[in-house]
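Please check this today:
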Amino acid sequence: MYKKTNKNSKYMNKKILIPAAIIIIFISLFISLKLNRNTFAGESIFKDTTVFINKIVMFPFTALNKEKGKQTESYVIQKNVNSSLEKEIQELKDTLKLNKTLTEYTPINATILSRNKSYWFNTITIDKGKSSGIKKDMAVVTNAGLIGKISKVYKYSSEIKLITSDDVNYKVSVAIKTDSGDTYAILNGYDKKTNCLKVVGVEKNSDVKENTKIVTSGLGGVFPTGIYVGEVVKQETDKYELSKTLYIKTKQDFNNIHYVTVLGEKK
C-alpha cells in the first residue's frame, strides 16, 4: 500500500512539474524573441530569475532522461558540449590571453548561458550584467575577433546581438585595408549557406583583393577602431554595377561560442 502511494506521489509530481516547466520556458522565450523592443521596468528581475529557475526546473528532467536513455534534443546538445571539453578549455585560455592585449578597455569575461535555436545567429545570453559593469552597446569579442554588441542588460545577465544577425537595421561600419588606403563600407547580413558575413556598399573601383582584412572603422562611436572582423573570400558587383558586395570569412565559428569578452569602460 505504501509503495503504491509513493509511486502515485512521484507520478503526480511529474504531472505538476512538467506543465510548470513548459509555462516558465514559454514565457521566457516569448519575452526574449521580441528582439527590437525596449526593456520594460521589472524585466531585469524577471529575466535573471527565469535563468536560474530554468536551470533548477530542467535539472530533474535531464537526470530522468539519462536514467531512461531517452535523450532530448537539449540533452544531446549538452552531451556534445561536454564531449568538446578540451576545445572549451582552449577557448577559455584564448580569452584570458586576449585580456592581455586589451590595454585600452576594461575586459569583462563572460560565459554563454543560453541560446535560442530559432534565432541561433541572432542573439546569445551571457552570465554577466549591470552588476559586472556591462552597459548597452558595448562591443563583444573573442580571440577570433568581433562577434557582436550588448543589446540588452539585466542585473546578472545580458543579451548579445551577433554580427550574424538578420536584423536589417543592425549595421557595423568597417574599414577595408587596401594598398591604396582604407575604404569604408557597411557590414550587414550573413549568408548561412557559405557561413560568410556580407559587406555592402563598397566602391566598385576599389582595389580589394582576396584575403584583404576587414576591421571595425570606429565610425559611429559604437565599436572601437581596428577590431578584426575577417578576410575577403569573394566579391561581386551589384546588377546596376554601382557598388560591390564582399563576402567575409571570420575566424570565429559562430556555431560554437562558449566564452566571450565584453569591452568595458576605457581605462
